[in-house]
Amino acid sequence: MILEHVHRLSNQRIVLASASPRRKEIFQNIGLRIKVVPSLFEENLDKSQFSSAAAYAQETALQKAREVSNRAWTPNNIPHLVIGADTVVELQGSILEKPKDAANAEAMLSSLIGQRHAVHTGVAIIIPSVTGKDGELFTRSFTSTTSVEFDKVSLSEIRAYIDTGEPFGKAGAYGIQGPAGAWVKRIEGCYFNVMGFPLHDFAAEVAALLQCGHLQ
Amino acid sequence: MILEHVHRLSNQRIVLASASPRRKEIFQNIGLRIKVVPSLFEENLDKSQFSSAAAYAQETALQKAREVSNRAWTPNNIPHLVIGADTVVELQGSILEKPKDAANAEAMLSSLIGQRHAVHTGVAIIIPSVTGKDGELFTRSFTSTTSVEFDKVSLSEIRAYIDTGEPFGKAGAYGIQGPAGAWVKRIEGCYFNVMGFPLHDFAAEVAALLQCGHLQ
Protein backbone atom coordinates (compact mmCIF):
# COMPACT_ATOMS: atom_id res chain seq x y z
CA MET A 1 0.00 0.00 0.00
CA ILE A 2 2.23 2.83 1.23
CA LEU A 3 5.14 1.14 3.05
CA GLU A 4 6.47 -0.36 -0.18
CA HIS A 5 6.60 3.18 -1.65
CA VAL A 6 8.12 5.00 1.32
CA HIS A 7 11.56 5.02 -0.26
CA ARG A 8 10.18 6.44 -3.52
CA LEU A 9 8.13 9.01 -1.63
CA SER A 10 11.19 10.15 0.30
CA ASN A 11 12.31 11.95 -2.87
CA GLN A 12 9.08 13.94 -2.96
CA ARG A 13 8.49 17.22 -1.18
CA ILE A 14 5.53 16.37 1.05
CA VAL A 15 4.17 19.29 3.00
CA LEU A 16 1.89 18.95 6.01
CA ALA A 17 -0.19 22.12 6.34
CA SER A 18 -0.69 21.58 10.06
CA ALA A 19 1.27 22.37 13.21
CA SER A 20 -0.12 19.35 15.10
CA PRO A 21 2.74 17.33 16.63
CA ARG A 22 0.45 14.24 16.71
CA ARG A 23 0.00 14.37 12.93
CA LYS A 24 3.73 14.75 12.39
CA GLU A 25 4.31 11.74 14.65
CA ILE A 26 1.88 9.60 12.61
CA PHE A 27 3.86 10.30 9.43
CA GLN A 28 7.15 9.61 11.18
CA ASN A 29 5.76 6.28 12.44
CA ILE A 30 5.41 5.00 8.90
CA GLY A 31 8.82 6.36 7.92
CA LEU A 32 7.51 9.17 5.72
CA ARG A 33 9.57 12.35 5.69
CA ILE A 34 7.42 15.45 5.61
CA LYS A 35 7.93 19.16 5.96
CA VAL A 36 5.63 21.01 8.34
CA VAL A 37 4.29 24.30 6.97
CA PRO A 38 1.42 25.32 9.27
CA SER A 39 -1.49 26.84 7.38
CA LEU A 40 -2.45 30.43 8.05
CA PHE A 41 -6.09 29.73 7.24
CA GLU A 42 -8.10 31.15 10.12
CA GLU A 43 -10.45 28.19 10.68
CA ASN A 44 -13.39 30.53 10.91
CA LEU A 45 -15.94 28.85 8.62
CA ASP A 46 -19.56 29.27 9.60
CA LYS A 47 -20.56 25.86 11.00
CA SER A 48 -24.23 26.52 10.35
CA GLN A 49 -23.52 26.50 6.61
CA PHE A 50 -22.54 22.81 6.64
CA SER A 51 -24.79 19.79 6.45
CA SER A 52 -22.66 17.88 8.96
CA ALA A 53 -19.69 18.15 11.30
CA ALA A 54 -17.74 15.93 8.89
CA ALA A 55 -18.43 18.29 5.97
CA TYR A 56 -17.24 21.22 8.09
CA ALA A 57 -13.97 19.42 8.96
CA GLN A 58 -13.43 18.47 5.31
CA GLU A 59 -13.85 22.05 4.09
CA THR A 60 -11.54 23.38 6.81
CA ALA A 61 -8.91 20.80 5.80
CA LEU A 62 -9.31 21.89 2.17
CA GLN A 63 -8.89 25.57 3.00
CA LYS A 64 -5.79 24.81 5.06
CA ALA A 65 -4.20 22.83 2.23
CA ARG A 66 -5.23 25.42 -0.36
CA GLU A 67 -3.70 28.32 1.56
CA VAL A 68 -0.34 26.54 1.71
CA SER A 69 -0.53 25.32 -1.92
CA ASN A 70 -1.26 28.82 -3.20
CA ARG A 71 1.78 30.43 -1.63
CA ALA A 72 4.47 31.85 -3.90
CA TRP A 73 6.59 28.70 -4.08
CA THR A 74 9.71 28.93 -6.24
CA PRO A 75 9.76 26.30 -9.02
CA ASN A 76 12.52 24.37 -7.24
CA ASN A 77 10.61 24.35 -4.00
CA ILE A 78 7.06 23.67 -5.05
CA PRO A 79 5.67 20.77 -3.02
CA HIS A 80 4.75 17.53 -4.74
CA LEU A 81 2.00 17.01 -2.22
CA VAL A 82 0.28 19.29 0.29
CA ILE A 83 -1.77 17.69 3.04
CA GLY A 84 -4.38 19.54 5.06
CA ALA A 85 -6.31 18.04 7.96
CA ASP A 86 -8.87 19.14 10.51
CA THR A 87 -10.27 17.14 13.39
CA VAL A 88 -13.52 17.87 15.24
CA VAL A 89 -15.38 16.06 17.98
CA GLU A 90 -19.15 15.75 17.58
CA LEU A 91 -21.44 15.06 20.50
CA GLN A 92 -25.15 14.80 19.85
CA GLY A 93 -24.97 17.15 16.89
CA SER A 94 -22.72 19.75 18.53
CA ILE A 95 -19.16 20.35 17.37
CA LEU A 96 -16.47 20.55 20.03
CA GLU A 97 -13.23 22.18 18.94
CA LYS A 98 -10.22 23.18 21.05
CA PRO A 99 -11.06 24.41 24.58
CA LYS A 100 -10.53 28.11 25.29
CA ASP A 101 -9.55 27.65 28.92
CA ALA A 102 -9.75 25.22 31.87
CA ALA A 103 -13.44 25.93 32.54
CA ASN A 104 -14.26 25.27 28.89
CA ALA A 105 -12.22 22.05 28.97
CA GLU A 106 -14.08 20.94 32.11
CA ALA A 107 -17.44 21.60 30.46
CA MET A 108 -16.43 19.70 27.32
CA LEU A 109 -15.04 16.69 29.18
CA SER A 110 -18.05 16.61 31.55
CA SER A 111 -20.31 16.38 28.51
CA LEU A 112 -18.24 13.57 26.95
CA ILE A 113 -17.90 11.19 29.91
CA GLY A 114 -20.24 8.22 30.01
CA GLN A 115 -21.16 8.91 26.38
CA ARG A 116 -20.30 7.89 22.87
CA HIS A 117 -19.10 10.63 20.53
CA ALA A 118 -17.81 10.85 16.98
CA VAL A 119 -14.40 12.09 15.89
CA HIS A 120 -14.28 13.35 12.31
CA THR A 121 -11.08 14.21 10.51
CA GLY A 122 -11.26 15.95 7.19
CA VAL A 123 -8.25 15.43 4.93
CA ALA A 124 -7.34 17.31 1.76
CA ILE A 125 -4.54 16.29 -0.58
CA ILE A 126 -3.39 18.79 -3.20
CA ILE A 127 -0.84 18.16 -5.96
CA PRO A 128 0.19 21.71 -6.92
CA SER A 129 1.94 20.62 -10.12
CA VAL A 130 -1.19 19.02 -11.58
CA THR A 131 -3.86 21.37 -12.87
CA GLY A 132 -7.21 20.38 -14.30
CA LYS A 133 -8.86 21.80 -17.46
CA ASP A 134 -10.55 24.40 -15.29
CA GLY A 135 -7.20 25.63 -13.96
CA GLU A 136 -7.94 24.21 -10.54
CA LEU A 137 -5.18 22.37 -8.67
CA PHE A 138 -5.56 18.61 -8.47
CA THR A 139 -7.33 17.97 -5.17
CA ARG A 140 -8.70 14.99 -3.30
CA SER A 141 -10.56 15.33 -0.03
CA PHE A 142 -12.41 12.96 2.26
CA THR A 143 -13.40 12.47 5.88
CA SER A 144 -12.98 9.61 8.27
CA THR A 145 -15.15 9.05 11.35
CA THR A 146 -14.41 7.04 14.46
CA SER A 147 -16.83 6.39 17.31
CA VAL A 148 -15.33 6.76 20.80
CA GLU A 149 -17.01 5.64 24.02
CA PHE A 150 -15.84 7.22 27.28
CA ASP A 151 -16.41 5.60 30.66
CA LYS A 152 -18.10 7.66 33.37
CA VAL A 153 -15.41 9.28 35.52
CA SER A 154 -15.55 11.65 38.51
CA LEU A 155 -15.14 15.42 38.43
CA SER A 156 -11.90 15.07 40.42
CA GLU A 157 -10.62 12.70 37.71
CA ILE A 158 -11.48 15.29 35.04
CA ARG A 159 -9.73 18.01 37.05
CA ALA A 160 -6.64 15.84 37.56
CA TYR A 161 -6.54 15.45 33.78
CA ILE A 162 -6.95 19.19 33.11
CA ASP A 163 -4.09 19.83 35.58
CA THR A 164 -1.76 17.86 33.29
CA GLY A 165 -2.30 20.54 30.63
CA GLU A 166 -3.20 17.84 28.10
CA PRO A 167 -6.63 19.17 27.00
CA PHE A 168 -5.31 22.39 25.51
CA GLY A 169 -4.86 22.56 21.77
CA LYS A 170 -6.92 19.40 21.29
CA ALA A 171 -10.37 19.03 19.74
CA GLY A 172 -12.87 17.93 22.42
CA ALA A 173 -10.26 18.77 25.11
CA TYR A 174 -8.58 15.37 25.10
CA GLY A 175 -5.87 13.34 23.42
CA ILE A 176 -6.55 9.61 23.18
CA GLN A 177 -2.81 8.84 23.09
CA GLY A 178 -2.25 10.40 26.52
CA PRO A 179 -3.77 9.93 30.00
CA ALA A 180 -7.39 10.27 28.75
CA GLY A 181 -6.79 7.00 26.87
CA ALA A 182 -7.58 5.32 30.22
CA TRP A 183 -11.20 6.55 29.97
CA VAL A 184 -11.83 5.06 26.54
CA LYS A 185 -13.90 1.89 26.87
CA ARG A 186 -13.90 1.23 23.16
CA ILE A 187 -13.54 2.80 19.77
CA GLU A 188 -14.99 1.76 16.44
CA GLY A 189 -12.98 2.83 13.41
CA CYS A 190 -9.47 4.14 12.91
CA TYR A 191 -7.48 4.93 16.06
CA PHE A 192 -5.12 7.32 14.30
CA ASN A 193 -8.12 9.29 13.14
CA VAL A 194 -8.87 10.05 16.80
CA MET A 195 -5.23 11.14 17.22
CA GLY A 196 -5.83 13.56 14.35
CA PHE A 197 -5.12 11.79 11.09
CA PRO A 198 -6.81 8.77 9.41
CA LEU A 199 -3.66 6.90 8.49
CA HIS A 200 -5.22 3.98 6.63
CA ASP A 201 -7.52 6.06 4.45
CA PHE A 202 -4.66 8.45 3.63
CA ALA A 203 -2.31 5.55 2.78
CA ALA A 204 -4.94 4.04 0.47
CA GLU A 205 -5.46 7.40 -1.26
CA VAL A 206 -1.73 7.95 -1.78
CA ALA A 207 -1.37 4.39 -3.14
CA ALA A 208 -4.12 5.20 -5.67
CA LEU A 209 -2.38 8.46 -6.68
CA LEU A 210 0.87 6.57 -7.22
CA GLN A 211 -0.93 3.96 -9.29
CA CYS A 212 -2.57 6.50 -11.59
CA GLY A 213 0.70 8.39 -12.02
CA HIS A 214 -0.34 11.65 -10.34
CA LEU A 215 2.43 11.02 -7.86
CA GLN A 216 5.74 9.70 -9.15
CA MET B 1 -10.79 6.59 37.82
CA ILE B 2 -7.01 6.27 37.88
CA LEU B 3 -5.61 9.71 36.98
CA GLU B 4 -6.90 11.23 40.22
CA HIS B 5 -4.94 8.54 42.12
CA VAL B 6 -1.68 8.67 40.17
CA HIS B 7 0.03 10.76 42.86
CA ARG B 8 -1.07 8.30 45.58
CA LEU B 9 0.01 5.34 43.46
CA SER B 10 3.44 6.87 42.91
CA ASN B 11 4.27 5.86 46.50
CA GLN B 12 3.49 2.21 45.73
CA ARG B 13 5.93 -0.29 44.35
CA ILE B 14 4.22 -1.34 41.13
CA VAL B 15 5.98 -4.10 39.26
CA LEU B 16 5.33 -4.96 35.62
CA ALA B 17 6.24 -8.61 35.04
CA SER B 18 6.85 -8.01 31.34
CA ALA B 19 9.77 -6.82 29.24
CA SER B 20 7.49 -5.28 26.57
CA PRO B 21 8.53 -1.67 25.88
CA ARG B 22 4.98 -0.99 24.57
CA ARG B 23 3.44 -1.92 27.91
CA LYS B 24 5.93 0.25 29.78
CA GLU B 25 5.09 3.15 27.47
CA ILE B 26 1.35 2.77 28.18
CA PHE B 27 1.98 3.13 31.93
CA GLN B 28 4.27 6.10 31.36
CA ASN B 29 1.57 7.76 29.24
CA ILE B 30 -0.78 7.94 32.20
CA GLY B 31 2.01 9.12 34.51
CA LEU B 32 2.28 5.87 36.48
CA ARG B 33 5.77 4.98 37.68
CA ILE B 34 6.43 1.26 37.44
CA LYS B 35 9.39 -1.05 37.83
CA VAL B 36 9.97 -3.59 35.08
CA VAL B 37 10.83 -7.09 36.35
CA PRO B 38 10.47 -9.43 33.36
CA SER B 39 8.93 -12.76 34.30
CA LEU B 40 10.97 -15.92 33.87
CA PHE B 41 7.85 -17.99 33.23
CA GLU B 42 8.50 -19.95 30.07
CA GLU B 43 5.19 -19.32 28.28
CA ASN B 44 4.91 -22.96 27.38
CA LEU B 45 1.33 -23.79 28.36
CA ASP B 46 -0.39 -26.40 26.23
CA LYS B 47 -2.83 -24.40 24.09
CA SER B 48 -5.01 -27.44 23.49
CA GLN B 49 -5.89 -27.48 27.21
CA PHE B 50 -7.71 -24.15 27.00
CA SER B 51 -11.28 -23.50 25.98
CA SER B 52 -10.31 -20.32 24.11
CA ALA B 53 -7.37 -18.16 23.02
CA ALA B 54 -8.45 -15.59 25.62
CA ALA B 55 -8.34 -18.19 28.42
CA TYR B 56 -4.84 -19.20 27.29
CA ALA B 57 -3.62 -15.56 27.38
CA GLN B 58 -5.20 -15.05 30.80
CA GLU B 59 -3.49 -18.10 32.30
CA THR B 60 -0.12 -17.11 30.79
CA ALA B 61 -0.51 -13.61 32.28
CA LEU B 62 -1.31 -15.19 35.65
CA GLN B 63 1.73 -17.46 35.56
CA LYS B 64 3.96 -14.52 34.63
CA ALA B 65 2.67 -12.42 37.53
CA ARG B 66 2.83 -15.37 39.95
CA GLU B 67 6.46 -16.16 39.12
CA VAL B 68 7.49 -12.57 39.91
CA SER B 69 5.27 -12.34 43.02
CA ASN B 70 6.69 -15.57 44.46
CA ARG B 71 10.30 -14.45 44.30
CA ALA B 72 12.20 -13.99 47.55
CA TRP B 73 11.39 -10.31 48.02
CA THR B 74 12.81 -8.69 51.14
CA PRO B 75 10.10 -7.14 53.36
CA ASN B 76 11.22 -3.62 52.41
CA ASN B 77 11.12 -4.44 48.74
CA ILE B 78 7.98 -6.51 48.36
CA PRO B 79 5.85 -5.04 45.57
CA HIS B 80 2.45 -3.53 46.37
CA LEU B 81 1.22 -4.66 43.00
CA VAL B 82 2.50 -7.11 40.39
CA ILE B 83 1.07 -6.93 36.90
CA GLY B 84 1.31 -9.75 34.37
CA ALA B 85 0.08 -9.53 30.79
CA ASP B 86 0.06 -11.70 27.71
CA THR B 87 -1.19 -10.79 24.24
CA VAL B 88 -2.16 -13.23 21.50
CA VAL B 89 -3.63 -12.78 18.05
CA GLU B 90 -6.41 -15.16 17.06
CA LEU B 91 -7.35 -15.80 13.45
CA GLN B 92 -10.15 -18.22 12.71
CA GLY B 93 -9.50 -20.20 15.87
CA SER B 94 -5.71 -20.33 15.50
CA ILE B 95 -3.41 -18.54 17.92
CA LEU B 96 -0.58 -16.48 16.43
CA GLU B 97 2.23 -15.63 18.81
CA LYS B 98 5.62 -14.04 18.07
CA PRO B 99 7.13 -14.99 14.69
CA LYS B 100 10.22 -17.19 14.76
CA ASP B 101 11.82 -15.69 11.67
CA ALA B 102 11.10 -13.64 8.52
CA ALA B 103 9.40 -16.54 6.71
CA ASN B 104 7.15 -17.14 9.70
CA ALA B 105 6.33 -13.42 9.88
CA GLU B 106 5.48 -13.42 6.16
CA ALA B 107 3.18 -16.40 6.61
CA MET B 108 1.44 -14.78 9.59
CA LEU B 109 0.99 -11.41 7.90
CA SER B 110 -0.19 -13.03 4.65
CA SER B 111 -2.90 -14.83 6.63
CA LEU B 112 -3.99 -11.63 8.40
CA ILE B 113 -4.34 -9.25 5.44
CA GLY B 114 -7.82 -8.66 4.09
CA GLN B 115 -9.23 -10.29 7.24
CA ARG B 116 -10.60 -9.47 10.64
CA HIS B 117 -8.78 -10.98 13.61
CA ALA B 118 -9.06 -10.79 17.37
CA VAL B 119 -6.39 -9.55 19.76
CA HIS B 120 -6.74 -10.89 23.30
CA THR B 121 -4.70 -9.62 26.21
CA GLY B 122 -4.83 -11.48 29.48
CA VAL B 123 -4.02 -9.39 32.55
CA ALA B 124 -3.27 -10.60 36.07
CA ILE B 125 -2.95 -8.30 39.07
CA ILE B 126 -1.44 -9.72 42.25
CA ILE B 127 -1.17 -7.94 45.61
CA PRO B 128 1.54 -9.97 47.36
CA SER B 129 0.83 -8.46 50.80
CA VAL B 130 -2.79 -9.61 50.81
CA THR B 131 -3.38 -13.33 51.40
CA GLY B 132 -6.75 -15.06 51.40
CA LYS B 133 -7.96 -17.65 53.95
CA ASP B 134 -6.55 -20.38 51.74
CA GLY B 135 -3.08 -18.82 51.84
CA GLU B 136 -3.31 -17.76 48.19
CA LEU B 137 -2.11 -14.32 47.19
CA PHE B 138 -4.83 -11.81 46.32
CA THR B 139 -5.26 -12.08 42.57
CA ARG B 140 -7.48 -10.56 39.93
CA SER B 141 -7.32 -11.57 36.31
CA PHE B 142 -9.31 -10.80 33.20
CA THR B 143 -9.02 -10.57 29.44
CA SER B 144 -9.82 -7.88 26.95
CA THR B 145 -10.53 -8.51 23.27
CA THR B 146 -10.29 -6.09 20.35
CA SER B 147 -11.30 -6.85 16.79
CA VAL B 148 -8.86 -5.60 14.13
CA GLU B 149 -9.56 -5.45 10.41
CA PHE B 150 -6.60 -5.34 8.02
CA ASP B 151 -6.86 -4.08 4.49
CA LYS B 152 -5.62 -6.31 1.68
CA VAL B 153 -2.01 -5.37 0.84
CA SER B 154 0.52 -6.76 -1.62
CA LEU B 155 3.30 -9.21 -0.84
CA SER B 156 5.87 -6.49 -1.60
CA GLU B 157 4.17 -4.30 1.01
CA ILE B 158 4.40 -7.14 3.56
CA ARG B 159 8.08 -7.65 2.71
CA ALA B 160 8.80 -3.93 3.01
CA TYR B 161 7.28 -4.12 6.48
CA ILE B 162 9.28 -7.19 7.50
CA ASP B 163 12.45 -5.38 6.32
CA THR B 164 11.84 -2.71 8.97
CA GLY B 165 12.35 -5.41 11.62
CA GLU B 166 9.06 -4.42 13.26
CA PRO B 167 7.34 -7.84 13.25
CA PHE B 168 9.85 -9.52 15.55
CA GLY B 169 8.94 -9.88 19.20
CA LYS B 170 5.30 -9.01 18.46
CA ALA B 171 2.27 -11.31 18.63
CA GLY B 172 0.85 -11.82 15.14
CA ALA B 173 4.04 -10.28 13.67
CA TYR B 174 2.83 -6.67 13.78
CA GLY B 175 2.64 -3.64 16.02
CA ILE B 176 -0.39 -1.41 15.46
CA GLN B 177 1.49 1.67 16.73
CA GLY B 178 4.11 1.40 13.97
CA PRO B 179 4.01 1.21 10.16
CA ALA B 180 1.45 -1.65 10.10
CA GLY B 181 -1.01 0.84 11.57
CA ALA B 182 -1.47 2.01 7.95
CA TRP B 183 -3.09 -1.35 7.08
CA VAL B 184 -5.71 -1.18 9.82
CA LYS B 185 -9.07 -0.23 8.34
CA ARG B 186 -10.85 -0.30 11.67
CA ILE B 187 -10.73 -1.67 15.14
CA GLU B 188 -13.55 -2.37 17.57
CA GLY B 189 -12.59 -2.24 21.22
CA CYS B 190 -9.59 -0.90 23.12
CA TYR B 191 -6.66 0.32 21.01
CA PHE B 192 -4.14 -0.05 23.83
CA ASN B 193 -5.17 -3.69 24.12
CA VAL B 194 -3.85 -4.21 20.58
CA MET B 195 -0.61 -2.48 21.63
CA GLY B 196 -0.39 -5.06 24.42
CA PHE B 197 -2.25 -3.76 27.45
CA PRO B 198 -5.97 -2.96 27.95
CA LEU B 199 -5.51 0.39 29.65
CA HIS B 200 -9.16 1.18 30.40
CA ASP B 201 -10.00 -2.20 31.92
CA PHE B 202 -6.84 -2.11 34.02
CA ALA B 203 -7.56 1.45 35.20
CA ALA B 204 -11.10 0.45 36.20
CA GLU B 205 -9.79 -2.59 38.11
CA VAL B 206 -7.18 -0.54 39.98
CA ALA B 207 -9.81 2.08 40.85
CA ALA B 208 -11.95 -0.73 42.33
CA LEU B 209 -8.98 -2.07 44.34
CA LEU B 210 -8.32 1.41 45.71
CA GLN B 211 -11.98 1.80 46.65
CA CYS B 212 -12.14 -1.49 48.55
CA GLY B 213 -8.89 -0.73 50.39
CA HIS B 214 -6.76 -3.52 48.91
CA LEU B 215 -4.51 -0.85 47.48
CA GLN B 216 -3.71 2.15 49.70
UniProtKB/TrEMBL annotation, chains A, B:
<dbReference type="Pfam" id="PF02545">
    <property type="entry name" value="Maf"/>
</dbReference>
<protein>
    <recommendedName>
        <fullName>Maf-like protein</fullName>
    </recommendedName>
</protein>
<keyword id="KW-0378">Hydrolase</keyword>
<dbReference type="InterPro" id="IPR029001">
    <property type="entry name" value="ITPase-like_fam"/>
</dbReference>
<dbReference type="InterPro" id="IPR003697">
    <property type="entry name" value="Maf-like"/>
</dbReference>
